């Protein structure tokens, strides 16, 4: 194996870190990590694993579930079977935050239906002055969420996590009238709608479908936002392009103001449009 000076330095640092951490199989673990991330020692095995991965993708297993990671907004997130894979669509939320003067320093942010934590962690990276809490209920997704929060803390990205159901009033009691921004990419697909196999068959169904009209979870989040948002607090929600008017009407019924739907074609792809609706709680 021919390694560069930089790679040799990294391996030396890795050995020291692993030894300090107390792992019981230091050299075996280090060898495996070098083989996985720096240079494959067994080219035949690498080729076999490559073809297995290709066959899985041909069976429409999502790429993130095959390789175990996904890049989102310059963050390397761990994902796998049983958790929703974040899509570039959600970056429209971060564009809005950066273009808006609405979020004062120190504001509290909730990322609801957080999954692996992509949206909340990206906010925490872009705005370290905000206090971000990622909320998820599914036990598999929570494991990925906690792992990503711990994983990215070494890069200076700080966020909290909360394992709670959206309908659990007691779990959210400490946040009442405390939250400056709620963001969410909830499940919003109507139950009868057919999707590409990656989403309709190989993603956890609870992260994709939401009742007969796709708006069940959105209604619950809007009701929760009414309890949690401070005056002038914001609710930002992803949804389907065809649901825009229905979501705006739900925002209006809850007396939100400054309601706007944003469709970002730059972040859209073959799986759908990048769409958010924004509303503000009045003073």
UniProtKB/TrEMBL annotation:
SUPFAM superfamilies referenced in this protein's UniProt entry, alphabetically: S-adenosyl-L-methionine-dependent methyltransferases
Record GO biological process: methylation
Residue ranges of domain Methyltransferase small in the record: 105-193
Pfam name, any one: MTS
Coiled-coil segments on the chain, per record: none
Protein EC: 2.1.1.297
Matching Gene3D superfamilies: Vaccinia Virus protein VP39 (3.40.50.150)
Alphabetical list of InterPro entries matching this protein: DNA_methylase_N6_adenine_CS, HemK-like, N5-glutamine_MTase, SAM-dependent_MTases_sf, Small_mtfrase_dom
Catalyses which reaction(s): L-glutaminyl-[peptide chain release factor] + S-adenosyl-L-methionine = N(5)-methyl-L-glutaminyl-[peptide chain release factor] + S-adenosyl-L-homocysteine + H(+)
GO-annotated molecular function: methyltransferase activity
Key words, A-Z: Methyltransferase, S-adenosyl-L-methionine, Transferase
Keyword S-adenosyl-L-methionine found: yes
The keyword Transferase is assigned to this record: yes
PANTHER family: HEMK METHYLTRANSFERASE, MTRF1L RELEASE FACTOR GLUTAMINE METHYLTRANSFERASE
Protein name: peptide chain release factor N(5)-glutamine methyltransferase
Native organism: Pseudomonas iridis
